[in-house]
Amino acid sequence: GVPAGQAGPRLIAFTALLMAYFRQSKRRTAKFLETILGQPASAAWTVKLQNRATDALRPAYDELAQSLPQQSHLGADETPTKEATSKSWLWTFVASSFTVFAIRPTRAATVLTELLSGFKGVVGCDRAKMYWQCGRLQWCWAHLQRDFQALIDSDDGQVKRLGRDLMRPTGELFRQWSRCRDGTITRAGMKRLLRPIRTEIEALLLRGVYSGNARLVGMCEELYNHRDWLWTFLDQEGVEPTNNVSERALRHAVIWRKLSFGTQSAKGSRFVETMLSVIETCRQQDRNVFAFVTQAVQAHFAHQPTPSLLCGA
Predict the structure, then answer these.
(1) Are 56 and 292 in contact (CB under 8 A)?
(2) d(Cα 88, Cα 237) in Å, to the nearest integer?
(3) d(C-alpha 71, C-alpha 225), whole Å
(4) What is the dihedral of CA 155, 160, 161, 167, to 10 degrees?
(5) How confident is the model over 4-29, as pLDDT tens digits?
(6) pLDDT digits (tens, 9 = 90+) for 105-138
(7) In whole angstroms, what is the distance from residue 217 CA to residue 209 CA?
(8) Burial 254-267 (b: 16+ CB within 10 A, else e)
(9) Per the confidence metrics, is the pTM higher than 0.85?
(10) Which DSSP state fits 5?
(11) pLDDT bracket for residue 1 (50, 70, 90)
């Protein structure tokens, strides 16, 4: 259990969190350790510590990733990033009690094949076509609301009119969903109240399909042909009409990316996806992330099993 070097489990965990949680650069992290803790440090040494943290936490990360296909519903999203000079994508998958981030060199559906093989649940997402292979989807109404606002902002009167007509029932959808979420009405009551709203929206989409307006036909045809994906949340417990849970999970990662401009190596990408997954999962479970990372590093040094982040494990 004695570490090979001058850094023990708490210092390794603290250094990793300075870089991943508190978004400090390698140089600033080293300067913090020297100035505040009196610990001689260099940027290169912080890289060594981050690699040790990755090695200690990776079994817990792999366990989460392997559990994704067994979930009943997931929120999914992705954002561009960089690995060295190459463009990459940071994917996020949010389950009810944990989150998995993954950095991959592509935005293609092959990533979903890799991580969600055998998945039978519902994926909440935007309308990006790589998600279509997942089977049952819930398209995000917050994205749709922005699309309808774009129609309202158009200079074309026909487009503007349909946008306004679609926005009115969309606002009522969100109002009834909020009432159900806060317990004012039951799910059965929400479904009853949204039945005429669903009929109205689908009729408006059909109007757009036959409008002859190139600005409307493509979007409305896609929505109408896959209209079942607009209403999955009505039948599937736990599924929300928006993908906000994934976008909230990505927020910390996006801020980190803007400050760091991505990673410089594959090892750096593994550190980022591992730490972001641990940080967000601990937040979901109301766990102390410093305590968990320290415990994982201690177990790694002692050649003991890595603590689990799966609820009930």
Answers:
(1) no
(2) 34
(3) 27
(4) -170
(5) 788 999 999 999 999 999 999 999 99
(6) 999 999 999 999 999 999 999 999 999 999 899 9
(7) 5
(8) eebbeebebbeeee
(9) yes
(10) S
(11) low
